[in-house]
């Protein structure tokens, strides 16, 4: 293949320390697994548009610049510093997940970014992102973040993954009015009132928190799916007011009365795992009981649902992992 026809290259398990090549446009470069590269300055001489680097330890952005590179992934590289990254002026996608970052300061003027992924790092301060107003998708899961106030001006966000942090305060999120996908699982949230201003929300994960009241969600008319298990919620009637709502998860909850969950043709799935339901709503629905072979009887007992209530004549009712199926 001629050099000018090259569109994709993978380089791995080598000991390259420098690159001298000049490559044609529309090029994807993948460098992974134990190369000796420590400096990305070589991409200044290439017309690389997409760069993927994985498991190359001690990599750095020092002395790097490019007006052609639009997407960069540097993951599992134990990356600790972003110094120099601001010179990549064409970037719109940046994935720095599974590294060792604790300072996002060098990103503060990269207001051309549209997607940023810093999942699984050591970040506690989001203030350097406050001016990145073109961001649409932000992934900050598994860090040490306690609040989202610093990103309140990122009004273009449609997707925010902020699960597995230490977030206790949602103040500021009410300004993110274009959010459609919001993941806040496994935090320390007690009050979800700010979410009522996020009127475009369609998918919401707030499981594994300390929430007792979900009535503020009555204003989120576009909600289609919600995961609320492992909280302390007693009143579920707000679900009946959500016209587009079709799926939710219910696990380890306080006991809701049967009339609190009124299903309809739009309600397609209710996941109930280790909850305290005493009866199944008798409208059109599909229930999926995720029961393992070792605990299926305990699950049904904890739910206080008798086999007589599992009306098998209802073709829309499917229960997976019943005693008859798993005891064989």
Alpha-carbon Rg, integer: 24 Å
The number of distinct β-strands equals 14
Strand order of the largest sheet: 1-2-3-4-5-6-7-8-9-10-11-12-13-14
Low-confidence stretches: 1-26, 271-275, 277-328
Percent in helix: under 10%
What is the 3D shape? elongated
Terminal CA distance reads 59 Å
User: What integer is the average pLDDT?
Assistant: 77
Q: How big a fraction of the residues is strand?
A: 15-25%
Question: Topology as H/E string?
Answer: EEEEEEEEEEEEEEHH
State the secondary-structure class: mainly beta
**Tally the helices: what do you get?**
2
Characterize the largest beta sheet: strand count, sense, and whether it forms a barrel. 14 strands, parallel
Keywords: Leucine-rich repeat, Repeat
Outline the structure in words.
Keywords: Leucine-rich repeat, Repeat. The radius of gyration is 24 Å and the shape is elongated. It has two helices and 14 strands; from the N terminus they run E-E-E-E-E-E-E-E-E-E-E-E-E-E-H-H. It has a domain at 247-328. The chain has a 14-stranded parallel sheet, with no helix packed on it. It is mainly beta and 328 residues long.
């Amino acid at each position: 293949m001629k050099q000018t026809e090259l569109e994709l290259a993978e380089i791995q398990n080598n000991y390259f320390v420098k690159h001298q090549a000049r490559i044609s446009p529309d090029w994807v470069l993948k460098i992974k697994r134990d190369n000796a590269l420590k400096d990305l300055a070589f991409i200044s001489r290439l017309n690389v548009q997409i760069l993927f680097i994985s498991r190359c330890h001690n990599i750095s952005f020092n002395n790097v610049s490019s007006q052609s590179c639009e997407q960069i992934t540097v993951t599992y590289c134990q990356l600790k510093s972003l110094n120099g990254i601001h010179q990549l002026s064409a970037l719109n996608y940046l994935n720095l997940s599974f590294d060792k970052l604790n300072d996002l300061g060098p990103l503060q003027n990269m207001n051309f970014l549209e997607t940023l992924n810093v999942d699984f790092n050591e970040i506690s301060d989001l203030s350097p992102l406050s001016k990145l107003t073109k961001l649409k998708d932000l992934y900050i899961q598994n860090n040490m973040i306690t609040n989202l106030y610093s990103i309140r001006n990122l009004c273009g966000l449609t997707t925010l993954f902020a699960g597995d942090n230490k977030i206790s305060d949602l103040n500021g999120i009410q300004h993110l009015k274009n959010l459609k996908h919001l993941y806040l699982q496994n935090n320390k949230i007690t009050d979800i009132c700010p979410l009522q201003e996020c009127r475009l929300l369609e998918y919401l994960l707030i499981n594994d928190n300390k929430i007792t009241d979900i009535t503020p969600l009555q204003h989120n008319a576009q909600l289609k799916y919600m995961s609320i298990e492992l909280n302390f919620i007693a009143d579920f009637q707000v679900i009946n007011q959500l016209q587009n709502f079709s799926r939710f998860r219910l696990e380890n909850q306080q006991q809701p009365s049967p009339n609190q969950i009124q299903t309809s043709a739009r309600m397609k799935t209710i996941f109930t795992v280790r909850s305290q339901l005493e009866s199944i709503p008798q409208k059109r629905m599909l229930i999926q009981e995720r029961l393992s072979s070792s605990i299926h009887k305990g699950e049904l007992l904890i739910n206080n649902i008798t086999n007589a209530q599992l009306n098998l004549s209802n073709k829309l009712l499917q229960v997976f992992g019943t005693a008859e199926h798993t005891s064989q």
